[in-house]
């Protein structure tokens, strides 16, 4: 895959480890989170999944995150998560960098990370620890155990904990130089700006983890990439926002923001209850996959489907 590395000051290279130049560059862009389509019997649909990946790749997307939240990570079985990772690496080939989502307990996350490495993926994204009691030092220990198990891979913590300090991320990276980026998903641009500077603004690639709605404000504070579920529906729209943000053209970026605003409001409503549902509904309206999602999500009620279909059709896909 050919990418252009963003201009930045890099952390010193550690002897015996790669510099992760290509992985860092891949994070500084649209980091797509593919949906996981299901067949009529409820199983993962490999052929449809491959077709959706090809659509992303043909649309110019060069970084894919299988087993992300838009892919219903927590609703998939361990064997399904492995299958999704395998299909992604096979279908993408050298056309995209692969950032595999891993998580759950430490042994499960480590096994998933090693599986991703053995497949040929370049990076893993570590989902936020799902535990009612997360201490700051325990957060470091959790991520360190995973990162140390796969020193060959770039590691990207998925950060949703507003209590975590930037100093803790710096502590983790001191121990694990393969922690190269952060998917920052705390909905507070001022907190992000402070956190990034406390951790080391130039030390990591900062990815706006709340997708297009937050990308302009987070880019203004130092992010160079953003995640996207919307990209499943309209790759050109996500790339248009990226191009505007890279060039510092915030008026154009905000025009794209207005274009996607209603779609993202529908996804964010009721505590993001329909986050994946709305994306799959848009894809279903285009005839690209079935609308079914797994509990605790639910398909969009019939009365709300027409609005999503109209939005998707209006993007001239």
Automatic annotation (TrEMBL):
Signal peptide: none annotated. Keywords: Lyase. Its EC number is 4.1.3.3, 4.2.1.41, 4.3.3.7. InterPro entries: Aldolase_TIM, DapA-like. The keyword Lyase applies. GO terms for molecular function: 4-hydroxy-tetrahydrodipicolinate synthase activity; 5-dehydro-4-deoxyglucarate dehydratase activity; N-acetylneuraminate lyase activity. Belongs to the DapA family. This is Dihydrodipicolinate synthase family protein. It comes from Streptomyces lusitanus.
